Amino acid sequence: MNSNEIYMQQALKKAWEYQLRTYPNPAVGALVLYRNEIIALEAHQKAGTSHAEVLALLEAYKFLSKKELDFDRFDSKKAHEFLYTLPSNYFKECTIFVTLEPCSHVGRTPSCASLLAQLKPKKVVIATLDPIVGHDGGIKRLEEVGIEVEVGICEKEALELLEPFLIWQERAFVLFKIAQTSNGKIGGGYLSSKESLTHVHQLRAVCSEMLIGGNTVREDRPTLDCRFTGEPAPDITIYAKEDNFDRDIPLFSVSERYVSITNCLDFSQPSFILVEGGGGMFNALKENIDWLLQYQTPKLTSHPLGYEVEVTLQYLFQDKKGVDLMLWSKI
Amino acid sequence: MNSNEIYMQQALKKAWEYQLRTYPNPAVGALVLYRNEIIALEAHQKAGTSHAEVLALLEAYKFLSKKELDFDRFDSKKAHEFLYTLPSNYFKECTIFVTLEPCSHVGRTPSCASLLAQLKPKKVVIATLDPIVGHDGGIKRLEEVGIEVEVGICEKEALELLEPFLIWQERAFVLFKIAQTSNGKIGGGYLSSKESLTHVHQLRAVCSEMLIGGNTVREDRPTLDCRFTGEPAPDITIYAKEDNFDRDIPLFSVSERYVSITNCLDFSQPSFILVEGGGGMFNALKENIDWLLQYQTPKLTSHPLGYEVEVTLQYLFQDKKGVDLMLWSKI
C-alpha cells in the first residue's frame, strides 16, 4: 500500500487523456496534494501551451486563494509570470506529483524546475527523470533550494506513457487505430461513441500525417477530416499500388490537405503517423506498427466483418471514452 | 476534483477483485486514511469471514502499532473481539471509506456498525446505504456516538457493484463468462492468463451451479473443476435436448459433483449461476443473462472461431487480470 502510488496513478491517468495529443511533446500529468486533499489534477494538453505542473499550480492557487485567474492559463509565459508574483512558500503545505521530471531548459515555455525552485512546495514526487540528454537537471535545481524530492514512483507506467515521445525522437511513431465491437466486429457503420469519434479527430489534428489503405478509400469513400473538433484536416498518404481513385471521394476535396499515393513507405523520419484501416492494412504494416488503439464499443454484434491478424499485444492503459472502452496496446 | 471520490474508487476497485466471490454476500471494499496516508485497503473476500471494514481496521492497527496479529484475520469473531480490546479513540485520526453502509445486524459475523461506534474513527465515508430492509441503521449507530458520517460518494458505482447481490435476493443472477482475444476470437485452446484461469475457478467454487451447453460438452470434453484453487467443483447443468453424452467426458467423473441434463431451465430461485459457452449458448440464454464477463487476452489472431450475438452492453468495470483485461458488462 503506498499512497504516493495512488496519487501518481491519478496523474498518469490524466496524462493518458492527452496521450499523443501533445505531439511533439511528451504526455505529462501533475497533481497537487494540500494536506490530505487533492486540489489539482492536470495534464499538458498541447505543445506550446502550459506544462502540466504549471496548470496544476494555477488550479492549486485558485483553490487556496478562492480567486479566479484573469488570463489564459494555457499561455505559459503569462502563467509563469503570474506564478512568480506569488509569495515564496505560497505552496509550502503542498506536495506536487508529476509524471516526468520538471523541465530545466527554456524551450517554447519557460523552465518549470526554476519556477518550482522559486515557489518551494513542501515536496515534489516524480515518476521518472527526463530521458532526453540536456533536458535533465530539473531535480538538481529543486534539491539545491532544499525541496524534498522523491523519484521513481510508478516509474514503469511513466516510461510506458513516454514511449511514443522517445520513439519520435528517432523515427516515426506509428499508431494503428481501430473501432470495434466487444466481440471484434468492425463492420456495420459508425461503431464508436461521440467521445471516441472526437478523440480520433483530436489525434488526426496533431498527427504528422494519416496513412490509409487503398481499399478503405475505395470502399468507405471517407472524408478523414477533423470536423468533430473544427481543426484543420491532416495530410494523407494512401498506401496503394496504383492511383486509380475516384477524385469524387470526399477526402480529396478537403481544403489545405495534401494527399499522396504511394506503395513505398518510409518510417525513418521523426513523426507521428496515424494509421486507420482493417485487417489487410494491419497485416501490410505489421512490422512498422508501434501501438494499437482500440475503441471498443459496448455491443456484441453478428456482423460478418472482423479482422484477422496474428500478433501479440501488451496492454498499456485502458479507460472509458464515453460508453466505449479505449484500450492502448503495444505491439 | 474530489479527494474522497479517489479514495472511494480505490475501495470500489478492491471490492471488484472479489465481485461474486463473496456470494451470497455483497462485494464490499474499505480503505483507511490516516492523516494523508492510505494505511489499509481491503475487501470482503468470502461469506462467513471478516467484513471489509474489519479487515481494513486490522491492517490499520498493524500500521499504527507496528505489531503483527496473532490470530486469523478472516475469523470475524476473533477479529471483532480483538478490535474491542483497543482503547476507544485508537483510530481517532483515521477516516474510514467503505463502499456499503456498515452492517447493523448480527448475522454470521458481529455488527460492524457497533464496532465502529465503539472505536470512534474521526469520520466514516460511505458510498451507499444498505438497500436490504432491516439491514440498514448502520449510520444511525455511528451518528449517535458523534462520528462524522458522509454518504453518497461514488454512489452510482457502488450500486453497480451491488447489483448481483440485489438480484440474487429475488431470483438467479446469471453471469455469462467468455475468454477471447482482443479481436473477439474464442478458438485456439487456452487463451487466458493463469490469473484469469484462477479467477474463473474462484467463481466456479462459489457459484450455485454451472450451466453449459450440450455442444460445449461434446466438442470440448471439459472437466470444469476448480483445480487452480483446489476447491470442490461446482454442480453442473447441461442444457441439451437429449442425453446422449459420452460418460468418459471428464466432467462426469469429478468427485462430489452432481450433473443434471435438461432442456428446461428455471432461473426463479435466488442463486448465482455461472454460464460458460460460445455464441450459441449466449443466444439461447440471451433473455436470462444479467452480466457478461470477458477475459480479453492481449493477442490478435486469425482463428476462424468468433461468436455472433446481437446485444447492447453497458461496461461496468475493467481491470487487468495478469496480462489480460477483465471486462464486466451488464446486458
UniProtKB/TrEMBL annotation, chains A, B:
The keyword Acetylation does not apply. Its EC number is 1.1.1.193, 3.5.4.26. InterPro entries: CMP_dCMP_dom, Cytidine_deaminase-like, DHFR-like_dom_sf, Eubact_RibD. Residues 2-150 form the CMP/dCMP-type deaminase domain. SUPFAM superfamilies: Cytidine deaminase-like, Dihydrofolate reductase-like. Keywords: Hydrolase, Oxidoreductase. It holds the Pfam family dCMP_cyt_deam_1. One of its GO terms (biological process) is riboflavin biosynthetic process. It comes from the Bacteria. One of its GO terms (molecular function) is 5-amino-6-(5-phosphoribosylamino)uracil reductase activity. Pathway: Cofactor biosynthesis; riboflavin biosynthesis. NCBIfam families: eubact_ribD. This is Diaminohydroxyphosphoribosylaminopyrimidine deaminase uracil reductase (EC)). The lineage of its organism: Bacteria, Pseudomonadati, Campylobacterota, Epsilonproteobacteria, Campylobacterales.
